[in-house]
Write a structure and sequence with these properties.
Elements (H helix, E strand, L loop, with lengths): L3 E3 L6 E3 L24 H16 L12 H19 L4 H10 L8 H15 L15 H4 L2
Bound molecules: zinc ion.
């Protein structure tokens, strides 16, 4: 899958979700790529919208994992479902705690990488608390 990028120096796989991303294991910078390589975040946001409409949640019960991108994306969807379910006042605190519970086994470099991905997704995500009428960029998409 094109979302998985392999570091040419240390050979771990990671997600090139933006131009600034370096290898989370060895900090090696990849050659400059074209815009079409940075699709992980927009694809994930699109999947979130579609799943919300179809299943009323982000993480579907059946989720095929064939790549690192799929694996990390599934964790993202589960965490954002929990975020909306628990509806905490402090999103960053909640996200930190949720991420702290994940076990990366021998792939500790993914811990920081995943935190960066969640932060990037959260930047593009606006959730409207049900009780209040705050403006929300995605409200019309998620709850149309
Ligand atoms: Zn590397």
């Amino acid at each position: 899958m094109k979302n998985d990028h392999y570091c040419e120096r240390c050979n771990v796989s990671y997600i090139l979700f933006s131009r600034e991303v370096k290898c989370p294991n060895c900090q090696h910078s990849t050659a400059v790529l074209t815009h079409e390589h940075y699709t992980f975040i927009p694809e994930t946001l699109k999947i979130m919208q579609e799943n919300k409409r179809q299943f009323n949640k982000y993480a579907p019960d059946v989720f095929t994992i064939t790549s690192l991108a799929d694996y990390l994306r599934r964790h993202c969807l589960v965490i954002f479902d929990k975020l909306e379910l628990q509806n905490p006042d402090n999103h960053s605190h909640f996200l930190d705690r949720a991420m702290g519970k994940l076990d990366w086994h021998d792939n500790l470099y993914l811990k920081i990488h995943f935190r960066d991905i969640i932060a990037e997704l959260h930047k593009h995500y606006t959730y409207k608390k049900p009780k209040h009428s705050l403006k929300s960029g995605f409200k019309s998409l998620f709850y149309a």
